Description:
Layout: E1 6-7, H1 47-64, E2 78-79, E3 91-92, H2 94-104, E4 110-121, E5 124-134, E6 141-149
InterPro entries: NTF2-like_dom_sf (IPR032710), NTF2_dom (IPR002075), Nuclear_transport_factor_2_euk (IPR018222), Ras_GTPase_bind_prot (IPR039539)
Keywords: RNA-binding
Organism: Aureobasidium melanogenum (Aureobasidium pullulans var. melanogenum)
Amino acid sequence: MASESAMNGTFVPQNGYGSIDQSGYTAPSYPSSAPSQSNNSAADIPKDEVGWYFVEQYYTTLSRSPEKVYLFYNKRSQFVSGNETEKVEVCVGQRAINERIKELDFSECKVRVTNVDSQASDDHIVIQVIGEISNKSAPHKKFTQTFVLAAQT
């Protein structure tokens, strides 16, 4: 496990995958002797790999194009954002989530991810992120964020 933190989706290499190109994702190559079956599913991809890739894409988008973060959500998604002592509203659906993200007014956002934990849950992947975030050059604040990724069809 690396001892340094990375900023804005440029994550410290995990498990020997090397540095990650910000222009796109290249899936890891598998040995040519691996069976080539058309029925291989996304369930064959390690959950931690899916988690790290998703987190990289999400926080890079938050940093570079915050107006596009809502695209990670769909009509059944839920989003909650607030501090531990606040009573906050749950936003449901892409439109409501987009409005809430606009209200948060992300600008010059910097994120340092310190831990990502990905676990399977039925046909979903639960991702827990721990890190620090700075918005508009303010001092970093600690945060946690949980994602539940639905199976893509």
